[in-house]
């Protein structure tokens, strides 16, 4: 929790403190208070749609509970945001093997996240094998190799430019013959050509369906919180192009734009599974809606 609080410091300082002191500057709860709240939320990268949703729902709650003191609204807001963020946080990895596909544009933190996630799963007693299916850049394969070593998990690789689906095939074969619990596959971070991306992901998921029929499959979209509204846009685009089951939001530690988490969950209704709060191997946290809201406002 300390790491989360530390990671969210900038967001708390800019968003939550502004909200709290704004509430306290009002003597009664009126239209202006909600208008100012909406403005602060939009400035904090929550997004216009979600900012309006929050104000509407908060108005209802305040009315329902008969709250008249503006200073008490912060606690209501915290509860509302926790409710909005809650649901579907845990990965479903019950089959052997289970598969996690990691998607997202370059630079958002995919490789780092795979390394952290591998270590995380290993710590929970699961065995892991990585598939270096971002074959587009040799550097991506090498970099994933470094994280595989750090997390002490094996990695299946082919040469640069080879077929990503073939890498996934080999990774699944290795997992099955070694009795590995979880297969994590990197993918190339292209969005500029949606059709390419969809074709590639479709081919990969067909291989998974054939080689590990009925397996639990998580498709995790990695987004960089420091990009604010851009992360929200990427989430929209990828949701159209790929059947994502969850979001990993990285680099929360370096940004005042953590409010984007709320916008992504509310608008897309895709669960947030993990947040990245640093560059080290243990800086990935399973998402906890209550802890998140508490770290922001508590
Ligand atoms: P990829 O291109 O998507 O695979 O991105 P990388 O995994 O190579 O990460 C890009 C940069 O972001 C690297 O310098 C990482 O150390 C950094 N990074 C990744 N996740 C986090 C995070 O949660 N917090 C911080 N501060 N940096 C991160």
From TrEMBL:
Cytoplasm recorded as keyword: yes
Which GO biological process annotations does it have?
SRP-dependent cotranslational protein targeting to membrane
Q: State which gene encodes it.
A: ftsY
What keywords are assigned to this protein? Cell membrane, Cytoplasm, GTP-binding, Hydrolase, Membrane, Nucleotide-binding, Receptor
Offer an example of a GO molecular function term for this protein: signal recognition particle binding
The subcellular localization recorded is: Cell membrane; Cytoplasm
Q: Which family does it belong to?
A: Belongs to the GTP-binding SRP family. FtsY subfamily.
What is the protein's name according to its record? Signal recognition particle receptor FtsY
Reported function:
Involved in targeting and insertion of nascent membrane proteins into the cytoplasmic membrane. Acts as a receptor for the complex formed by the signal recognition particle (SRP) and the ribosome-nascent chain (RNC).
Would you indicate the residue range of the signal peptide?
Answer: none
Which PROSITE patterns does the entry link to? Answer: SRP54
Reaction(s) catalysed (UniProt annotation): GTP + H2O = GDP + phosphate + H(+)
EC class name: hydrolase
Q: Which of this chain's residues are annotated to bind GTP?
A: 104-111, 186-190, 250-253
Q: Which organism is it from?
A: Acetanaerobacterium elongatum
**How the protein sits in the membrane?**
Peripheral membrane protein
- Enzyme Commission designation: 3.6.5.4
């Amino acid at each position: 929790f300390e790491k989360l609080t530390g990671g969210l410091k900038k967001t708390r300082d800019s968003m939550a403190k502004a909200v709290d002191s704004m509430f306290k500057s009002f003597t009664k709860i009126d239209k202006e208070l909600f208008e100012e709240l909406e403005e602060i939320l939009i400035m904090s990268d929550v997004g216009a749609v979600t900012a309006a949703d929050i104000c509407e729902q908060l108005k209802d709650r305040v009315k329902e509970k008969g709250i008249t003191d503006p200073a008490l609204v912060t606690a209501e807001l915290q509860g509302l945001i926790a409710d909005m963020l809650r649901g579907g946080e845990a990965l479903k990895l019950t089959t052997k093997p289970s598969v996690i596909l990691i998607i997202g544009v370059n630079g958002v933190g995919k490789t780092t996240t795979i390394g952290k996630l591998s270590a995380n799963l290993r710590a929970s007693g699961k065995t892991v094998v990585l598939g270096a299916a971002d074959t587009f850049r040799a550097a991506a394969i090498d970099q994933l190799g470094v994280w595989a070593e750090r997390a002490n998990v094996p990695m299946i690789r082919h040469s640069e430019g080879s077929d990503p689906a073939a890498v996934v095939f080999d990774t699944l074969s290795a997992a099955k013959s070694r009795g590995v619990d979880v297969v994590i596959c990197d993918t190339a971070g292209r969005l500029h050509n949606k059709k390419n991306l969809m074709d590639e992901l479709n081919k990969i998921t067909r291989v998974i369906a054939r080689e590990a029929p009925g397996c639990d499959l998580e498709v995790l979209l990695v987004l960089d919180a420091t990009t604010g509204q851009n992360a929200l846009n990427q989430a929209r685009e990828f949701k159209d192009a790929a059947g994502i089951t969850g979001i990993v939001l990285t680099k929360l530690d370096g940004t005042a734009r953590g409010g984007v988490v709320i916008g992504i969950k509310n608008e897309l209704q895709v669960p947030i599974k993990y947040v990245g709060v640093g560059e080290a191997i243990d800086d990935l946290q399973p998402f906890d809606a209550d802890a998140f809201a508490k770290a922001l406002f508590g």
